[in-house]
Amino acid sequence: MRLPIRLRLTLVFTLSMAVLLTVTGSFVYLRLGAELQRSTDAALLAQAEAVAGALGQQGSGQQGTGQQQNAFSPPNAARGGDLGTFAQVLGPGGRMLEPSPGPGARPAVPPSALRGSRRPAYLDLAVRGIEGTARIVVLPQGAGKGRVWVVVGTSAGNRQEALSALLVLMLIGGPVTLALAAAAGWAVAGAALRPVERMRQEAEAISVSDKGRRLPIPASRDEIARLGSTLNAMIGRLEAAFDRERRFVADASHELRTPLAILKAELDLARSRSRTKPELLAAVSSASEETDRLIELAETLLVYSRVEGDRMPLRREVTDLDQLLRDACSALAARAAREGVAVQVDPNMVTAVVDPLRIRQAVENLVTNALAHTPRGGQIRVSATLAADMVRLAVADTGPGFDPRVLPRAFEPFATGPGPSAGTGHPAGQGAGLGLAIVRAIAQAHGGQASAENSPGGGACVTVCLPATD
Asked: What average pLDDT does the segment 239-259 reach?
């Protein structure tokens, strides 16, 4: 089970602080140890050089005289021994020349450590009389048989005590700091997520009936405010979609109700009393026509639902659009002749990779819509042109054109009101008012778009733009 975001943020912040404190504490600990070591080495070297200078003033050839001992002992040996510091002068073979009261009379450095040394050397050794480990500097003086080594050392206990005290402070202060950091992280995460919780509560309270209700957006211009704005925009789109669905269901119910009522009336009338054979044939013929209308409406609704749900399969192939337009118009030639409208196809030798069945359906819808609103003696022109890898299918008529109030929503399903033939009150689409909606959906399924406009010289023009290639 995943942890809450607030707890996860607090844990991540606390772990980050733990890593930061560990790295910082380790750096401070090591840096302090190095600085104490450096200062200790500098002090030991200075004391060794002071002892070497005193030896030089007395003469390097004198060994073991009382005068040399007196010059060396008071400032370095006696006082240094009380503070855990000692000094010795060793001759060839590691023999003690100048002892210090601190570590006793035994040499602090073995003879093996003296061989080959030409410059000051620093050693960490256990020395008798010094508690713990001693830090020692060996300073060679002279050359040949007269070479001596000045050895100065001090206890490393002070350095270790300082480091131990620092370690104790970090071990005590670290958990306390982490606890405070965790509490601060918990509070900051809660404050940051509080607007999100308010939006969640408001979203939980919003229902379909609460139109216009939106999530509270914090005054800050941060990611949460942008999230709230995005969610409010999404809620607005959902409300618009719900409204469209309601209108679609209501309009579809209305369209279905009419043929069903006529069909039931014809059947009731046929069985109400004895009918002659011609009367029965007329009733059955009327019922058959209404049944065909219901079938057509059901198929149209099915096609539209597939298109709107992005479930329309497309079988693209190289298609001769001029031939497709001629075939579509030929299927409607009989109706055009009955209504006295001329349908003309402009040949332009255009081919494209499209689904021929769907494109023919779209063209037939457009021509059918134009026939329904073009007066007798009018003309419909159908054309396909190619420009910049885009195919433009256009169906223009010589009717009154779209009413300006309907034009912005001409491609909506069941767009009622004055259509291209103003004042008719018929939906601006085929039969059930889904013709133009299906045209737009087919265009979008191909990656194109559909548009409608009124021609400057009069009449309406509906255009479908499609990519010429897949």
From this structure: 76
Identify which has the larger pLDDT, 116 or 435: 435
As given in the structure block, the two tokens for residue 170 are 């970090």
Q: How far apart are CA 368 and CA 438, in angstroms?
A: 13
Q: How far apart are CA 126 and CA 381, in angstroms?
A: 111
Q: Over the stretch 346-389, which tens digit does the pLDDT of each residue have? A: 988 899 999 998 899 899 989 988 998 899 999 999 999 998 88
Tokens read off for 334: 């009989």
Q: Give the residue-averaged pLDDT of 202-225.
A: 78
Residue 389 in tokens: 């890898």
- CA atoms of 314 and 330, how far apart (whole Å): 24
Which 3 state secondary structure label does DSSP give 461? Answer: strand
Task: Evaluate whether 314 touches 307 at the Cβ level (below 8 Å).
Answer: no
Helix (H) or strand (E) holding 161: helix 157-205
Residue in the block written with tokens 């040499």: 107
3-class SS at 412? coil
User: Which residues make Cβ contacts (< 8 Å) with residue 214, sequence separation at least 6?
Assistant: 232, 235
Q: What is the percentage of the chain residues whose pLDDT exceeds 90?
A: 29
Residue found by looking up tokens 């733009």 in the block:
465
| Of 47, 28, 43, 46, nearest in space to 162 by CA | 28
User: Contact at 8 Å (CB) between 44 and 153?
Assistant: yes
420 DSSP assignment? S
* Each residue's pLDDT tens digit, 280-300: 788 788 888 878 778 877 777
Q: At what angle do helices 157-205 and 223-272 cross, to 10 degrees?
A: 30
7 vs 26: CA distance, rounded Å: 28
Distance of CA 182 to the CA centre of its chain: 27
Which structural domains are found in the chain, ordered by start? 5-161 (3.30.450), 223-308 (1.10.287.130), 317-467 (3.30.565.10)
